[in-house]
Amino acid sequence: MAEWRRHFSLRAGEWAFAVLGLPLALLGGVYALAVLYAGALLSLTVLGLPFVVAALLGARALGELHRRLVGRLLGEHVETPGRLPRPAGAVARGRAVLTDPVAWRTLLYLVLRLPLGVLGFAAAVALPLGCGWLIGYPLWSRLLEPGPRPVTWLDGAAVALGLVLPAAVPRAVRALSGANRGLARLLLGPARSQQRVRELETARATLLAENTDRLRRLERDLHDGTQARLVALAITLSLAEDALSPVAHPDLGRLRTLVGRARGQTDDTISELRRLTRGIHPVALDDGLGEALPGLAATSPVPVAVRLDLRERPDQGVERAVYFCAAELLTNVAKHSGARSAELVASAAGGRVRLSVRDDGHGGAALGAGTGLTGLAERLAAVDGVLAIDSPPGGPTVVTAELPARL
Question: From residue 102, how far is each of 68, 97, 181, 186, 391 by CA, in Å?
């Protein structure tokens, strides 16, 4: 029921956009064409640059109106572009506006939106009215012309066309709505360079937050775990020293017990330190991914077939990201997939590194499904990598990570 309501709301929004969007399309198109025409005429005068600056600022404002309309009626979320920089001085601010890619792309959008708006209104309003006129053509023609008139093939063709054409109206409205969504995504959002900077800033912030949390966790574990074990070891050794006191005869039984306890505490401390340092830099990566990935697969409780094609060695940061990505994916296979076997494929060639983990489990893996894939995608984004998931219900699941070999 909820899906049906969403579908109906979207279709109603497409019709509303086709009808209500025409005035805004006309306003924006006329504005853009007038700006281009007047800007060309005034370009040789002192008023040219100030006029273009003001016009571009106005284009940004119109773009915001169109962006809201597309989001409200067509359900297409277009990310808001970044704000204009505000350097000191009128000349510097004017230069920032004149070189603003968002404003120029918005002007282009307003020009292209005009014919789409006219076509959308024609498909949603003019075409249905025309169909009604065609169906009633035999009656209108006889009411407008006095005297008897025989039925001709034109009357039948008009009625047939009026009955057939309405079937094309929803498709035409849907196609034009899709064109408007694509045009808005292409021209009303941030420029590609701005989007890339924003993605990298988000990824960097995520990575810094994760590293900070990891450092705090490490400090807490060292303080509450390893440090406490070392204090207990020091106390045990102090008691052993008391047992060897020259004032009395050594208590060999107690001494043996204390030495055994100290040995156990030492082993526990070493295990604790190994556990804490495992996530800092895997020792297996010292010899590269060719040695680290098979060793990682060998520790998986699910049998994993490994296929490697590593023609070049990536940067250390990329190797570390690939290693932890493989570890996370194999952990997901063991915990969540119910798989009986898996396959790990890694390649490094042509400046790109590709890692793929496939399992024969029950499928259904997705970002945000509680399997850590969202955090994994964010960590990969910090090194300019992407994560792709193909996991239909019933399986198989294929998760692929691709990232550059050089940072």
Answer: 16, 9, 17, 11, 37
> Within this chain, do residues 155 and 6 fall inside the same structural domain, yes or no?
yes
The tens digit of pLDDT for each residue in 297-327 reads 888 888 889 998 888 888 887 888 888 888 8
Assess whether 261 and 307 both reside in one domain. Answer: no
CB 136 within 8 A of CB 225: no
- Report, in this order, helix, strand and coil percent for the chain, each rounded to 5: 70, 10, 25
Whether 12 and 143 map to the same domain: the answer is yes
Q: Per-residue pLDDT averaged across 335-348, rounded?
A: 87
Kindly give the interhelix angle for 48-73 and 168-187, rounded to the nearest 10 degrees: 130
pLDDT for residue 143 is more than 70 = no
Contact 349, 311 (CB under 8 A): yes
- Rounded CA-CA distance 115/26 in Å is 9
Residue 305, SS3 per DSSP: strand
Measured CA to CA, the distance from residue 346 to residue 356 in angstroms comes to 6
Three-state secondary structure call for residue 21: helix
For residue 111, with 0-12 CB atoms within 10 Å meaning exposed, 13-18 middle and 19 or more buried, which class applies?
middle
pTM: 0.53
Q: Which domain holds residue 266?
A: 195-277
